[in-house]
Specification:
Protein name: DUF2905 domain-containing protein
Order of helices and strands: HEEH
Strand order of the largest sheet: 1-2
Keywords: Membrane, Transmembrane, Transmembrane helix
Mean pLDDT: 87
InterPro entries: DUF2905 (IPR021320)
Largest sheet: 2 strands, antiparallel
Number of helices: 2
Pfam family, one: DUF2905
Number of strands: 2
Distance between the termini: 27 Å
Length: about 60
């Protein structure tokens, strides 16, 4: 259980570090990524970006 929490924490940390680079490449603005404001707070749900990045990570892991 602790191992999975550590993996999730590290994955979120890497995503946070690489998000400016990914935003420059167009990720986060794909069709299917939801941006809306609720209760005065902006919300962002990157559905399509998550699918694309998961596919790319899967492809890389298969090739290695």
């Amino acid at each position: 259980m602790i191992r999975w929490l550590l993996v999730i924490f590290l994955a979120l940390l890497l995503i946070d570090w690489f998000s400016p680079l990914l935003h420059k490449l167009g990720f986060g603005r794909l069709p299917g990524d939801l941006r809306f404001r609720l209760f005065g707070r902006p919300w962002f749900i990157p559905l399509t970006t998550t699918l694309v990045l998961s596919f790319l990570a899967s492809l890389v892991s298969k090739l290695l």
